[in-house]
Structures are given as C-alpha cells and as structure tokens.
Amino acid sequence: MKIRKSVLSALVVGTLFASASAYPATTFIAGDVHPADYPTTAAIINMGKKLEAATQGRLTIKMFPNGQLGDENAELEKTRAGAIDIVRVSMSPVGGILPEVGVFNIPFTFRDPTHLQHVLDGPIGTELSGKITNSNLGVVHLGWMDAGSRSLITKKAIHNVAEFKGVKIRLQNNPIGLDAFKAMGANPVVLSVGDVFASLQTGVIDAAENNEPTFDSENYVVAGTKFYDKTEHMMVPEMFAFSKIKWAKLSKEDQALILKLSKEAQADERKLWADYTTKSIKRLQSQGVQFIEVDKKGFVGATTAVREKYGAQFGDLLKRIADTK
Ligand code: BDP
Predict the structure, then answer these.
(1) Among residues of the chain, what percentage have pLDDT more than 70?
(2) Residue 156 CB: number of other CB atoms within 10 A?
(3) Does residue 268 contact residue 143 with C-beta atoms inside 8 Å?
(4) Atom number in ligand 1 closest to CA 90
(5) Ligand 1 atom 8: the closest Cα is on which residue?
(6) Position 34 in a domain
(7) Which ligand 1 atom is at minimum distance from the Cα of 170?
(8) Do 62 and 182 lie in a common domain?
(9) What's the pLDDT at 25?
C-alpha cells in the first residue's frame, strides 16, 4: 500500500508528540524572601532563562519572591519535602539547623567580604558545601551568594558597645547570633524577616541588623530607623540549593547542566550584589540615613567569649579561615 504524504507527515508529527510527552516540560519552583529585583532573586530568575534556552523550553524555573512560599525555615522545610525545588536562603537559619556549618555566625570571623569570598571559593567552601549536601537537610548545595556584611540598623545612633546596652534588636534564627548579641549587652529577639518592619513600627523592637541592600529593600527607614552603625559584626553568605528528592529524579545530563548554570548564577549574583549595594547606600543616604563608624574594638572585645565557646566546636576551622588570604 502506498502511504500518502499527508498520512506520513501525520505519523511523523505523532511520533514527535509521543517523544515530547515522554519528556514533558518541567517547571522548577523556586523561593526567596526577597523581591524579584534583589540580587539573589534576580540571579535565579536569570538562571531560569538560561535553563529554558539550553533545553528548548523543556526545563524552566518559576520564582516565587517576597517570601510567598513562607519564611526561610518554612522554605527549607518545603524544599526538604520536595514542594520547593530551588531554595535561596541565608546561612544563618541553615547554621541554626545544621551547627557544623554554622561558622558564619561567629562574630568577627571574616576580615571583609572579599576574605569571605576567598574562603568560599577555596577548600573550606567546598567542604561546607559537601557537608550541606551530605546532611539530613534534604538538599543538594548548588552555590553561594554574596550578602556583604551585617551592621546595626537603629532608631538612635550607636557609637559604641556601651550605647548598645538594652537595645531590643531582631535577630535571625541562630543560637550563636543570640549569644553574641547578649554578650554585646543587647536585648535580642528572634523574628522572621517578614515581621521586622511591623515590629519596628510598633516599637516591639528598636533595631534590626542587616546589610545595606536589605535595609533598603525592606524599607526600614519608613519604619523609623535612621542610623546604620557599622559594626560589620557578621558576614553571612547566602546559599542556593536543590531539593534532594527532586534532584534524584533528574537525568545525569540535567543535573550537570544545572550545576554548570549554578556556577554562573553564583558569579552573576556577585556582580548584581556590588551594583545593588552601591545603589542602596545612595538611596539610604538620600532618605537621611546616617552611616556611623562605631568603635569596633568594644564590640569585638565583648564577644571574645562567644568566639572561644563556639570556635572550639569547629576544631581548626577558625584558624584556617584566618590563614586564608
Ligand atoms: C538578608 C538575607 C535573607 C535573610 C535576612 C534576614 O539575604 O536571606 O532572610 O537577611 O535577616 O540579608 O532574615
């Protein structure tokens, strides 16, 4: 029997559909507490575009910004359960759950953000990434992201540790951070980042602590804070990671592609971070925020016992960090 051309093309199209439905388009769900234009969120959105292009639309990423999928602890839980595929969170809550990677919350551990980058780009970064992936957190670590350094965001000016006494300050969920702020004489309370604005406004807290981009993007000036007191007490990086349950379902090729694009996203975020920080500082200054050079020695001195207590749990890690150029 002679097969007519139209029948033939129908057969070809049918085969194409069959093979396409064997590999249906997959949308990975991503979550971040920050808005869509924030460096961390934007870097994952860019990664999604590249993934879509590289797979002719077979794989895509849908970002849920602004904490739409919950606060960071909730997002981590959902990622473990496979309800979120890609999560971007601060290392503070991660260290709270997994103390062996909690070194970033020991105050005054890094000289500056470049020192932290060198540590993360070297063997220590690789070791910590492996610890996260091999832990029971239920995620595959994909990469690190910059988050600058954290300083005090206050309603009254703080120049030294004595002036910080009794200040009610919001902290991330991390026990080392709590100890550190108690040692500085403050009155810390743990809240998720989404609750900080209202708590500042209603006077539940007098202060927050964060980097300039979050001070800016969360609009803390409108909630009554006018000072950025530059303690630079912690440099806590961000991480982004894939749900382990979901990772196991991907082909080796797709895993390799995601790892490659994650490296690029890490580099992308570093550039976005630098630009955004410059803009945030300008914006904060134009809103009347005063940047104060504090007497840092007093804050460092007040937290010596905290470094000794927690440093001991990390063996020679603090020394290896200090020795990193
Ligand atoms: C920001 C981090 C974000 C945290 C937030 C916080 O980028 O992941 O949720 O701090 O203080 O710098 O909770």
Answers:
(1) 93
(2) 12
(3) no
(4) 8
(5) 90
(6) yes
(7) 11
(8) no
(9) 82
Cα of 37 to ligand 1 centre, how many Å? 15
Looking at the fold, whether 170 and 302 belong to one and the same domain comes out as yes
Residues 141 and 63 reside in one and the same domain: yes
64/9 same-domain check: yes
CA of 59 to the centre of ligand 1 (A): 28
**Is any atom of ligand 1 closer than 6 Å to the C-beta of 196?**
no
Cα-based distances in Å from 130 to 65, 120, 127, 139, 321: 27, 12, 5, 11, 17
The answer to whether residue 314 scores a pLDDT higher than 90 is: yes
Digit-coded pLDDT (tens) for 162-186: 999 999 999 999 999 999 999 999 9
Residue 102 lies in a domain: no
Rounded distance from Cα 88 to ligand 1 centre (Å):
10
Q: For 60, how many CA atoms within 13 A lie in the half-sphere containing its CB? A: 9
pLDDT at residue 45 greater than cutoff 60: yes
Distance, CA of 176 to CA of 92 (rounded, Å)? 9
Q: Which atom of ligand 1 is nearest to the CA of 211?
A: 12
Instruction: Measure the CA–CA gap between 278 and 251, rounded to whole angstroms.
Output: 41
33 lines ligand 1 (CB under 6 A): yes
Average pLDDT for 130-156 = 98
Collapsing DSSP to helix, strand or coil, 121 comes out as: helix
Tell me whether residue 105 is in a domain. no
Output the pLDDT for position 315.
87
Contacts of 208 (CB under 8 A, 6+ apart): 152, 153, 169, 170, 196, 200, 215, 220, 225
| Nearest protein CA to atom 4 of ligand 1, as residue | 90
My answer on whether 304 and 207 are in the same domain is yes
Range 213-234 average pLDDT: 98
Instruction: Indicate whether 202 belongs to any domain.
Output: yes
Q: Which residue range(s) make up the domain with 242?
A: 2-97+112-145+237-276
Domain identity same for 39 and 159 = no
Same domain (yes/no): 85, 21: yes
Residues 303 and 313 in one domain: yes
Total domains in the fold of the chain: 2
